[in-house]
Design brief:
transmembrane helix, transmembrane, 11 strands, 2 domains, five-stranded antiparallel sheet, about 325 residues, elongated, alpha+beta, VanZ-like domain-containing protein
């Protein structure tokens, strides 16, 4: 009987390791949005929760069953070493090792150990252990939950693309290549703007300092115009470039919509017909039901220039 029990423990442990290696090194969730990517990362915590709990329970079925804290310590160390080895292997198979993944591994492992202690020992308050485990798992899932809420808000607010008063919509906006983008209270010089906040962008010395609006609501077919507002506090005009792509974009300049917008000093409203946006120089018609990304950018600015942007929307 003892031999069968030992065989079962070894078999379960080996199966757990093999399945975990497959999930960590090979499995990919189906989407490539920020929600799916963050959920993929959060899966580290869920998986290491399961690993730690299973190995704690297996050790509790051995002669070490009366040493729960020894079991907890050993399982935590082994889990972290296993997570570190997996991250090192990822560096050799074309994927990037990540300290944040290691942090999620640790959160999950500690949560699994807490549940083990709550179920298999009376030396630890079950309530405290359970609450700690739940808090760690919730924290590890907080980012995908935020992205899920942001996606819902994006759909609810459409045809508004970004207005910078809704923090959820602002999650889909990012400054890149020496463009310093931040949300600020509406400057007093922009007197006709009644909103409370705008996007302030310092376009700096990068090659193409830009602001990217990604993971857009894709279906623009029910609307006629793309509109946004800008305030140029400089004493001279500033040329702002606009780029819009759909999901079929071939990464060629002629296969996207491009426009050069001259922003005069002071207030500017930019309104571009979607019929114009859809006609690409490549000869292809942009699929306005599958719009993907919007970028505003400048050339290298010396010295940097600041623009205030607001009310990106469709009409």
């Amino acid at each position: 009987m003892f031999a069968y029990k030992r065989f079962a423990i070894v078999a379960i442990a080996l199966a757990t390791v093999l399945v975990s290696c497959w999930l960590l090194l090979s499995y990919r969730l189906p989407g490539n949005t920020h929600f799916w990517q963050s959920l993929q990362n959060a899966g580290h915590a869920i998986l290491f929760f399961a690993i730690a709990f299973v190995f704690s329970a297996l050790l509790a079925a051995t002669r070490y069953k009366n040493k729960p804290f020894h079991i907890a310590f050993v399982v935590l160390v082994v889990s972290l070493v296993f997570g570190g080895v997996v991250e090192l292997i990822q560096g050799f198979i074309g994927r990037e090792p990540s300290w944040s993944d290691m942090g999620l591994d640790a959160q999950g492992a500690i949560a699994g150990i807490c549940v083990y202690l709550a179920l298999f020992t009376r030396r630890v308050s079950r309530v405290v252990a359970t609450v700690l485990a739940a808090a760690l798992l919730f924290n590890s899932l907080s980012l995908p939950i935020r992205w899920l809420i942001a996606e819902h808000q994006r759909g609810q607010c459409f045809p508004v693309i970004a207005d910078f008063e809704n923090r959820w919509l602002s999650m889909f906006v990012d400054g890149r290549s020496k463009a310093k983008a931040k949300i600020i209270p509406t400057p007093t010089i922009w007197a006709n703007n009644k909103s409370g906040r705008v996007l302030s962008v310092e376009f700096g010395r990068g090659r193409w300092p830009s602001v990217v609006f990604y993971e857009l609501e894709p279906d623009w077919t029910a609307y006629n115009n793309f509109v946004f507002e800008a305030y140029n506090p400089q004493a001279t005009p500033v040329t702002l470039s606009l780029r819009i792509t759909d999901k079929s974009y071939s990464r060629k300049y002629s296969d996207r919509f491009n426009a050069q917008l001259e922003l005069v000093p002071g207030y500017n409203e930019i309104k571009i017909p979607l019929a114009r946006i859809s006609q690409l120089k490549s000869g292809r018609v942009m699929d306005l039901s599958q719009v993907d990304e919007l970028i505003v950018f400048t050339g290298k600015q010396t010295p940097p220039v600041t623009l205030y942007l607001d009310h990106f929307r469709l009409e």
